[in-house]
Amino acid sequence: MSARLNVLDHSMVPSHQIMGEEEVAALLTRYNISNDQLPKMYQDDPAAKTVEAKPGDVIRIIRASQTAGRAESFRLVIRRPKK
Questions:
Q1: Can you give the residue range of the structural domain that contains 38?
Q2: What are the angstrom distances between the C-alpha of 82 and each of 5, 28, 61, 79?
Q3: Which of 11, 12, 42, 74 has a CA positioned 20 to 30 A from the CA of residue 65?
């Protein structure tokens, strides 16, 4: 018997959401950057697997912040390089 753990249910793990194409385009325009300039996360990261992210997807991470109330960060999902 194998119960699958949803890491996003843990209180220490912030919300992870896959962004739509229009949202990504607005983000890149706002900061005048390209996809490759975003911080990266591997597709086999437990949170990325839970939201079923694929390489090329951009993930919005929303954390509670003591100073700002809410802090957003973004990650480009990439494939882990083969050894």
A1: 13-78
A2: 26, 29, 26, 9
A3: 42
Q: Is residue 7 part of a domain?
A: no
Say which CATH number the domain at 49 has.
Answer: 3.90.940.20
Taking alpha carbons only, the member of 42, 49, 47 closest to residue 80 is: 42
The amino acid present at 13, given as its one-letter code, is V
Q: Is residue 2 situated within a structural domain?
A: no
Provide mean pLDDT across the span 57-64. 94
Position 3 confidence tier, pLDDT thresholds 50, 70, 90: low
| Residue 8: inside a domain | no
Q: How many structural domains comprise the chain?
A: 1
d(CA 62, CA 13): 10
Residue 34 has pLDDT above 90, yes or no: yes
Query: Which residue do the tokens 């753990």 mark?
Result: 5
pTM of the model: 0.85
